[in-house]
Amino acid sequence: MKAIFVTPKIISQKCRYALRAIFELASHDKSDVMKISEIAAAQSIPPRFLENILLELKQAEFVTSRLGNAGGYMLKRPASELTVGEVILFVQGSLMNKFVLSENVTFRNGDYAFSNLWQRLNDSISDIYSNTTFANLVEEEMSTTKEYVPDYII
After folding, report:
1. Residue 26: helix, strand or coil by DSSP?
2. Where do the domains of the chain lie?
């Protein structure tokens, strides 16, 4: 069975990489540090690009780092306290594109109704981002990818 993966077009590639980097860190024990090369390999992120992203995430206090041979990056706070919405807001500046009616067009029947529909859609997606923690995502990944082990007890 082939899996279908959907990624919203409104999320930039840089933001996707940032989300995946934080997800990778959240997937490991909080006390574990991960090297850039480990995160990059696990998430297929170009290492040089990831280095810049992690520096920005460090400035925003999403991650912290340790220097030295045993150094690397780790989450600054628990994954259960870090939401997808926070990261998107930091990296992109908004959770969604805002839908607005232009004043320079001829209005047609339904324009206001559709505008309200787009706004409700925007609000719903923003709400999902803001209420989804990285701990939620890690838990969902683990429960989804758990292999089925048949029970042969008779």
Report:
1. helix
2. 13-145
Three-class DSSP category at 34:
strand
Q: Any idea which residue has 């959770």 for tokens?
A: 95
Is residue 44 within 8 Å of residue 55, measured between CB atoms? no
CA separation for the pair 54, 61 (Å, rounded) = 10
Question: Is residue 109 left, alpha or beta, with left meaning phi > 0 and alpha meaning psi from -120 to 50?
Answer: beta
> % helix / strand / coil in the chain, to the nearest 5?
50, 5, 40
The pTM (predicted TM-score) of the whole model is 0.80
**CATH class of the 13-145 domain in this structure:** mainly alpha
Give the pLDDT confidence of 36-87 residue by residue, as tens digits.
999 999 999 999 999 999 999 999 999 999 998 888 999 999 999 999 999 9
